[in-house]
Design a protein that fits this description.
The protein is α/β, with parallel strands linked by helices. It has 11 helices and 9 strands.
Length: 319
């Protein structure tokens, strides 16, 4: 498993392919090398890369997959709309004790984990609302948090989280003409950008969990569902505030330009690959600014699952 001092030196590598040319990534002399028509465009030491995000079509080799696992580098392959269609994850697959702890976790403990995650998520939403002077709305969320400890059913927790998120989005993003959160539908620019940011955050979180050997399909709050990485969905919940904060910040700084987007087939998309790169970089930098916090949160969650008598449940604090 990767240590914190090592992880501090890690970076996310973003690769934007180009149509009409031969795009390739390969390992060469302990470097991840990106080429176009056999000309080297960029290279990075495999010892410093944590994950590589590739947008567009690209050629890879079996040597890349072999060395990716060897050096602990994960690869995510995305469509131009930032949807992940394939991945090669570096993972600790032999940690059978951890998987055993996951599979044998009682329903009561799963509910405790779910309550901790939802409570942490809403507390970070409260912090963000207070940061934009929405104190009355933050107080409403605080009252919802107070009811979580008494929850005895999973469905009730879903209801609290849904009500809190609806109130949060409506008030935190009201300065950018917010309508409502509609995942993957992309009816407006804020929803499209949240999808991009959440995707990057999700993939980073999933990579960290897999490094420890978690089965990321076995969750606590998000239940088993075909082809859904329920545990990654769980852990990303209290971390979403990173992307929420960055989205509003980007609008306030004038980084979001409506001319970068096009509307067709009832949804917004980015105009071209260069615009994809622009906004992906914004959210990647936001995630990497918290990479030490993400590492600590995942590490402490691992310790909690392995021994909840000695280790308390971790808290991600946006402050």
């Amino acid at each position: 498993m990767i240590s914190l001092p090592d992880f501090k030196e890690k970076q996310l590598l973003f690769i934007q392919t180009e149509r009409g040319v031969s795009n390739k990534i390969k390992f060469h002399n302990d470097n991840v090398v990106f080429t176009k028509d056999d000309s080297v465009i960029n290279r990075a030491s495999c010892h410093r890369v944590f994950a590589v995000f590739v947008i567009g079509d690209i050629s890879i080799t079996s040597e890349l997959m072999k060395n990716g696992r060897r050096y602990g580098v994960s690869f995510f392959f995305l469509k131009p709309n930032m949807e992940v269609y394939a991945s090669i994850n570096a993972a600790s697959e032999a940690n059978y004790l951890l998987k055993q702890a996951q599979y044998t976790m009682s329903a009561d403990k799963e509910l405790i984990v779910a309550k901790c995650l939802v409570k942490n998520k809403i507390e970070n939403q409260i912090y963000l609302l207070n940061s934009v002077k929405k104190k009355e709305e933050a107080e409403h969320l605080y009252k919802l948090v107070q009811t979580i400890n008494s929850i005895r059913e999973h469905e009730s927790l879903l209801g609290i989280e849904g009500n809190a998120s609806k109130l949060f989005f409506k008030n935190y993003f009201n300065s950018i003409k917010w309508f409502r959160r509609m995942p993957r539908v992309k009816p407006d620019i804020p929803n499209l950008l949240l999808d991009i940011g959440y995707t990057i955050l999700f993939n980073c979180t999933d990579s960290l969990l897999r490094l420890y050997g978690f089965d990321t399909y076995k969750g606590c709050y998000h239940k088993l569902f075909f082809q859904r990485k329920s545990l990654s969905c769980d852990i990303v919940e209290p971390l979403r505030c990173i992307i929420d904060k960055q989205l509003l910040k980007s609008f306030n700084l004038g980084q979001v330009n409506e001319e970068d987007f096009v509307f067709s087939n009832h949804k917004f998309t980015l105009k071209n690959f260069e615009k994809n790169q622009k906004y992906s970089k914004i959210f990647m930098e936001a995630v990497m600014a918290h990479k030490e916090d993400l590492y600590n949160f995942t590490r402490d969650f691992y310790r909690y699952v392995m021994n909840d008598q000695k280790n308390s449940f971790p808290v991600f604090n946006l402050k």
